Amino acid sequence: MSLEIFGYSQSRAFRALWMAEEIKAAKGVYFEHTNSSPMPGPELDALLQLNPMGQVPVIRDDGFVLRESMAINLYLAKKYEVLSLATLEEEALAWQWSFWVMTAVESHTLEALKYKIGMMGVEQDDAKVDAEMEALSRPLDVLESYLSAHPYLIGDSFTVTDLNVASVLMWLRMGQIDMSKYEAVSEWLDGCLARQAVTAARQH
Q1: How many angstroms separate the CA atoms of 120 and 131, rounded?
Q2: Mean pLDDT of successive 10-residue segments in the chain (204 residues)?
Q3: Comparing C-alpha atoms, which of 136, 95, 87, 88 is closest to residue 115?
Q4: Is the pTM of this model over 0.70?
């Protein structure tokens, strides 16, 4: 088997690298990481051959090419049977939470990070951070309520569902943004980010 991951680690490609490190730890499946950048140049030309959108991550798994980080992780979990789901209903819940975090959480989380540390062409602005966190209050309240009664998003163990959602919320940790009002979310997130596969993915 041959798994290749394209994309620089300080991007959404980190999610795929985290998943691949979980697979490597569980099954001994090694993978190749190409630190592709979607900036103009030879790397972008090569990337466009795999993804006409010019975005990362992209994987090539035994010749099968797939893009979009959440789809990649759900595919990898099922194919390699690592952090995977046991039933169709559980798979559907994994899709639900993965789509939810992309549509209701990711954009505000990224904006909060940008304004907190000053990146991607914006200046630090605590008022804008507060505004983004206010926009996140409803989805985070939903997650807080759920995790107050459940140890993980599905069942009693860590799955790709937790990985996908935590890989977005980790941006708040990166910006050292206060999450103290969300005690259950914070405890769950800290547990997710303490996994050895996260440390390994950060080395790429």
Answers
A1: 18
A2: 88 97 97 79 79 91 96 98 98 98 98 91 92 97 98 98 98 95 98 98 95
A3: 136
A4: yes
